[in-house]
Amino acid sequence: MGDLKGRKALVTGGAQSIGAAIAVALAAAGADVVIGDIQDDVGRATAKELAARGGRTGFVHLDVTKDKDWEAAIPEIIRQIGGLDIVVNNAGIEVTALVADIDAESMLRMFNINCVGTALGMKHAFRAMRPGGPAGNGGSVVNIASVAATIAFPAIAAYSGSKSAVDRMTRVAAVEAGKLGYGVRVNCVYPGLIANSMGVALANDIVALGLAPDVPTAVGGVVEQTPLGRLAEQPEVADAVVFLCSDAARFITGIGLPVDGGMGT
Prior knowledge:
The chain is of the alpha/beta class. It has one domain (about 10-190, about 235-260): NAD(P)-binding Rossmann-like Domain (Rossmann fold, 3-Layer(aba) Sandwich). About 45% of the residues lie in helices and about 15% in strands. The protein has helices at about 15-30, 40-50, 65-80, 105-130, 155-180, 195-210, 215-225, 235-245; strands at about 10, 30-35, 55-60, 85-90, 140-145, 185-190, 255-260. α4 (about 105-130) links the parallel β4 and β5 (about 140-145). The longest helix is centred in the middle third of the chain and has 26 residues, at about 105-130.
């Protein structure tokens, strides 16, 4: 049911970390995958690693906050892999700050990437996939939100707001795509805390802000809030994305799928 043979996918922010894990999982399921990222060298290296697994792969330079980058990327993606029917809007950043210390410039930068970037990703996915578009066969869009959209966790108010926006935009986009006959399903996932660079940075920030005495305690606090008793792992999130892109989820749209070990319950 997770077979994606013949599908054509774009993963934004796919050069490394969770984005790269998603790209690997899509490729393993049989999809042809293009990585879109601002990190050209790292992105091309990741695409090269995917190519060694078989299937067509590619890379496009893509700043998700810029319409002109999307306008250039979509036809190039279609040229590289012969179509487009999966878009994973993964690119995002996290800025840690107490509410009393929020910096407007940093917050605007985060919202630009997390919210505007996701909105533009859906915009250009719809234009490419809907009837009459350059791909034109419908498909699936998966946005990467966060468990932060469902819980109250200190020091990430702005980040939580940005990911809550991703969740709401996902649901509105799903309704529009359905009512307008685009043939595109739109869903999002809520990953729990992962021990990647972003997760480690958050733990260090929690300590620096005086919310925990050390990193093990900070991480332990998250684990204590998680019924399954551990942090999330990148392949687990990637598997959820594959599911939402597959025919196993063919009648699922407009949802947020928690991959958080029950933390947001």
